[in-house]
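ok so I'm stuck.
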Amino acid sequence: MQVTRTPEGQLFINLQPTSYDGEVADIDGLFFNMSDDADVPELNFFPDENALPITGHAAEANSVNSLDDGTSAGPDFDAMVQFGQTPDSTDGTVNSANFTLWSDSGLTLDDIDLSSLSLVVTNPDGSQEVLEGGYDPAAAASDSSSYVNGGVSDNGLGTWYDAMTGDPEEPQTAEDGTPGTEDILALMNQPVDDQEGLSDGQEDDEMEAYL
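replied:
not stuck anymore, here's the structure
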């Protein structure tokens, strides 16, 4: 997952798998929090609902926890974006997507809480799974404003996966090559090349966080 602040004060969020080797999980929804509940009423989304593959979104402080198909993300979040190939539904396969958050007062990277995220996916075998995690500021090893792997690298990355999966020593990919939880957690985000409307200086306002 990559979150980029544009020169216009919007947050461009890109979801994309690290690799297309084997089968890739289907993204059904992303749940997240804002750093300040007061910002939630002013939060806007682009594109609009049912501009496929975006099939829904919602924003209400500490009150959002389910998709249109009834799947619960667990705890209450401030906002969610739903993905699918059929309006008002998670039906259909979505392996990558992007959307933009904006507010009349403008947004910064500090306005979105990247430490608490839930990603709902449908696995290649048809089962649905809720992946919880996010970027841990305490684990960041870089003082740059551009973070890779949420600023976590080397041993820090292993610690991060440990917190996310409970046991990073177990193989995360099945013998048949089907991606496991670690592969899906890497449903991350590659830098977006040649984004229209982004300035050359945008790199100074870029952050990546891996779920």
